[in-house]
Amino acid sequence: MISARVPADETSTFPRFLDLEYPNIERGEGVWLFTTKGEEILDACSGGAMVTTLGHGALGIVEAGKRQAEKIAYFYMDHFTNEPQELLAERLIAVAAPEMARVRFASSGSEANETALRLVRAYHVDRGEPDRWRVISPAQAYHGSTMATLALTGRTHSLQEPYTPYLSPHLHIAPSTWRFDPTGDAALRELDERLDEAGPETVAAFFCEPISGAALPAYSPPDNFWRGLDERRKKHGFLVCFDEVVTGMGRVGSWFAYQQLPIEPDIVTTGKGLGAGYAPISAVLCKQHIYDAVDEGSRFFDLGHTWDGAPISCATGLAVLDALVSRRLIERVRQGGPRLLAGLKSALEGNPLVAEVRGRGFLLGVDLVDLPDDVHADERVEDVALEHGLLVATTHSTRDGYAGDEVLLAPAFTSTDEELDLMVRRFSEALADVSRSLVTK
Predict the structure, then answer these.
(1) What pTM did the predictor assign?
(2) Beta pairing, strands 282-286 & 267-270
(3) In angstroms, rounded to a whole number, what is the distance separating the alpha carbons of residues 7 and 28?
(4) H-type alpha helices, 221-358
(5) 3-state secondary structure of 35
(6) For residues 68 and 216, what is the distance between their CA atoms, to the nearest angstrom?
(7) DSSP letters along 180-225, please?
(8) What is the pLDDT of residues 384-438, one digit of tens each?
(9) 3-state DSSP call for residue 14?
(10) Is the peptide bond before 169 cis (omega within 30 degrees of 0)?
């Protein structure tokens, strides 16, 4: 019998944090998690990783995977295709991303972003520009946990150490936040410096989140930056890749976040919300000219993971997409987002720990005031929130200097107004407790 709380030294798994005692989650219903001890936790972060956009226990999605498994569960996609994969690709382009032309499926966000990097390289090589390989990206970012995707962030202390010997030497610019550059002008100047430093003829892509997830929750540079980026893309010939592993599939009130910006990417990735927690699936979408370069060049894209385009995953993704459409959940997020943001701002007003509150759709971020690195306010917030029966996500990048402690709320699209209000209230109470504890120390 597994106990209700599992210390790291009493499990056969290899946990992330070796000094924690992990609550044992038995089941979930809607936006509620239940431990084996009977504790109820309100899930304000879609499973903790912004994934379960349809909530827990969506039996219709489960049934779609079950029906497919009864037909055929798995075969490798190197020489075959399947109806769920074909239908999902077609529906994704027609319904969610009409600006795109082709889709390639993978299993995780990290795999999708690595696939995007491989596709960038293939594009330039097939067009006769093999010297293009450098990537420029914002320093305050997270794009995945493979070595290739880890190289895309500039968070050396928080994420890259001790793996820097394995990482490609990509280039980075500081984010244009209120801390550094609220207009976006400084970011564009720094982008020009990085292009000059690398030699623009060696730069393959600018890789970023259009609206950030975990690293800078709900943050997006000003439109001035996006327009400047587009100008430089046209001038220098690099591609623009958007990581929408978090924001794709409706998280910010549109199918993709780029649809709210004055720029379109050449390549875009998505993941978490595509499977909604019911199957591991992600996708890379590209415009026609990207496909054409390979079609007119090598006619070969050498990449394959075991579960790419697998029937069960694609059938599940298709059921998720259909649920988002039939239940009008993207509209729900778009219409409910401003109310949620206003409620959060009102609830946190006057808390001395809060520097900024921002949000797009059902993705909200809270910047905490700058605190010493060793305070680890992020850990305090998560722990106290759990004491209040609330699951939130936090990040701590103070040592890297681009941001301080951040808190992320990303509720399921199916959350009721009453549940959203309860999330805000519990979070406000938890943050007030943390604020009081820091003041008294």
Answers:
(1) 0.96
(2) antiparallel
(3) 22
(4) 223-236, 272-275, 288-295, 311-326, 329-348
(5) strand
(6) 38
(7) T-TTSHHHHHHHHHHHHHH-GGGEEEEEE-SS-SSSSTT----HHH
(8) 999 999 999 999 988 888 889 999 999 999 999 999 999 999 999 999 999 998 8
(9) coil
(10) no
